[in-house]
Amino acid sequence: MASPAEDIHPPILLRDDSWLAFNARVLEEAMDPAVPLLERAKFLSIFSSNLDEFFMVRIAGLARHAPDAVARFGGRYYFSPHELRERLIRKIRILTARQYRSWERSLRPALAAHGIRVVRWEELPEECAAEASALFEREYRSALTPVAVDPDAEEPPVVPALALELLIRVQCPGTDEIRTAFMQVPTRSSRFLCFESLDVPGEILLLPLEELVGAKAAGFFPGCTVLECAAFRVTRDRDLTPDEDTGDLLSEMQAMLRKRGKRTIVRLETSAAMSAAARAFLMDTLGVTPDEHISVRGTVDLTGLMDLVRLPGHPDLLDPPLPPLPSPHCPADRSMFDCIRDGGPFFLHVPYESFDPVIRLLSEAADDPDVIAIKQTLYRVGQDPPVVHALIRAAQAGKQVTVYFEIMARFDEENNIRLSRELADAGAHVVYGVPKIKVHAKMLLIVRREGDEVRRYLHLPTGNYNCSTVKQYTDIGLFTCDDALADDVSALFHAITGLSAPASWKKIIAAPYDMRGRVLAMIDREAALSTPAHPGGITLKLNALQDPEVIEHLYEAARRGVRIDMVVRGICAMNPASLPPEAAANVRVVSIVDRFLEHSRIYRFANGGAPEYFIGSADLMPRNLSRRVEILVPVESAALRDELDVILFTSLHDRRKGRRLTGENRYSHTTGTLQHESERAQVSLYNYYKKRLEHPDFPQDAPGTEY
Questions:
Q1: Range 509-694: architecture per CATH
Q2: Tens digit of each residue's pLDDT (9 = 90 or more) over 447-472
């Protein structure tokens, strides 16, 4: 059996190692002094949220294996799940310690120097403490419930996943007995209570909510002495995978969601200030082992730092605003149907451009008497989605509305079930999903009667129909009424809802049907066409590259002289260092971590001078190619290809926020790269779209697109 220690340059890197390397890049943004202070706090929060998900899914998955199991990871290496888990936890402890050092020693003092002080209860001035006490009595006391913990009970109290809890130890009068209770810190819009300092003009004081609750804990134990009050938090297994043989996916998912509070604990976080006795009691009560426990030196749970970005009055501590631009293809005085029919095809690139045209299209479709039918796939849509409201209105108006609502979208299951039921109650035909496969493809098809003919309008994006994430994620959406594409999308809807696969597609590439074979064939074609005088070329923009078979074909293409340029935001299991130097020189991998989350997927194959371009929903991972419904859409318009070239070229040449892969999970750093601010891809792309809006004759092509 091979192991990474035995192979100096493993050709396929472990997915989890690569993911942790990505989250380290997120942490690096929080530690970069050139990043505005409140934005650095945001990245600390994102780092914590990412780790939460990693524990809930990846670490939890390893914990579900039998202790003596041996499994293959990374395509060729064999570990026991316990060995891999230990390996990952060691790395996580190092990263977490680095995160807390950054917060306590660097970022928190720097914020204080700018008039934003995060304080403990003891540091709160008397006037502010009185205001906080009144707020506590008015809004919090009645909502709080201490729960006594009986060490002899068969089952401990249920501690919700990711809830911030206080462990309170009290001594009753006239006895040496020490009792323990848990109390959950209330969930509210902000983790911090904000007060104006009376001593320093303009200074604000931020009190973590748990500090206020802890200070008032004695009031819940009359006559007792509070010996200790310390914060903790548990993370539980959150991978809800239903039985493949279930006949009722909706009911099974609902049952699993009801039981989530009792799922296995995979991590316990405690404050380093917690006493050894309290920590031992807590671990014993919850059944947590030492390797599942992480002690932090500072505020438990830094996800709440995201609230700091919303503090008013500190624009100098934030990135300069880049408000979404209106699309030049969708003037407000024209119907979206006219824009697509007469001006299409065209892209909408969020968040540089506003998501408004998508909402307009659906809203017009809901109200237009000539619209016959609407079909749409929905994966993550947010809490109060205008997209769903428009579909409900369309169904209530008597239109044929068919929605494939993926209720197995991880962490969105409950919200998706609620919204899918609202759609069904309105009269839409809702397909809730099938147990064996997820539908990750993003598609909208609108059928409209126009005179004596019927025309089909399409919106095919790389990301979700979510009005919140479209402000933060970069995604491309294609608007078109191309008949061949419409035929393919119709056939794919039939395949999803009817569980049958079409014989062939006219234009699209779809997983799990033919995507793996087609992608491999296009990679191999580049290798076959490549010559020293005219080397092949593959340019990819992805969230993740992990599939071992795809990587092996890319390696072979590189050996045969194909130039491979990739923008891979997160997991990249490819290790060019495993290739001979002349082949490794043909591979360039860039990861961009910046103010927006890079989410769009673009595929470009040089094809001997007749390049082919695709956008789509799919990353190159085993799950995307084999266990999900995904779609790649060909881009045939010369103008749209030029736009994709601009995006790819700008991203590959970002020397400010683009980190270059330099070794096994090693990337270049952005600290000290301020001199390359003009090459910052996201700002450059925003300026590109702004100039295009202001000057319709602005050239589409990038200045030199030699990849």
A1: 2-Layer Sandwich (3.30)
A2: 999 999 999 999 999 999 999 999 99
Residue 6 — pLDDT band, cuts 50, 70, 90? very low
End-to-end CA separation in angstroms for the chain: 39
Contact 365, 392 (CB under 8 A): no
CATH 3.30.870.10 domain locations along the chain = 336-498, 509-694
Q: Where in the chain are all domains bearing CATH 3.30.1840.10?
A: 15-317
The CA distances from residue 26 to 123, 225, 288, 474, 630, in Å, are 31, 43, 29, 17, 27
Per-residue buried b or exposed e for 34-47, using 16+ beta carbons within 10 Å of the residue's own CB: ebbbbbbbbbbbbb
Residue 701's pLDDT band (cuts 50, 70, 90)? low
Spatial CA neighbour of 618 closest among 524, 510, 493: 510
**How far is Cα 465 from Cα 552, in angstroms, rounded to an integer?**
34
Q: Are strands 658-663 and 666-667 parallel, antiparallel or unpaired?
A: antiparallel
CATH class belonging to 15-317:
alpha beta
Identify whether the C-beta of residue 633 lies closer than 8 Å to the C-beta of residue 616. yes
DSSP 3-state percent helix, strand, coil across the chain (nearest 5): 40, 25, 35
Q: Is 678 exposed, middle or buried (0-12, 13-18, 19+ CB in 10 A)?
A: exposed
Print the SS3 string covering 154-196. CCCCCCCCCCCEEEEEEECCCCCCEEEEEEECCCCCCCEEEEE
Residues annotated catalytic, as ranges? 440
| Whole-number Cα distances in Å, 162 to 238, 267, 278, 303 | 11, 10, 20, 10
Beta strand pairing call for 293-296 and 265-271: parallel
β-strand 601-605 against 612-616: which pairing, if any?
antiparallel
* pLDDT of 423 strictly over 70: yes
Q: Are 466 and 654 in contact (CB under 8 A)?
A: no
CATH 1.10.3210.10 fits 336-498, yes or no: no
Pairing state of beta strands 587-592 and 563-568? parallel
Quote the DSSP letter at residue 105: I
Inform me whether the pLDDT recorded for 407 exceeds 60: yes
Q: What is the pLDDT of residue 118?
A: 96
Residue pair 544/568 in contact by the 8 Å Cβ criterion: yes
Is residue 427 within 8 Å of 452, Cβ to Cβ?
Answer: no
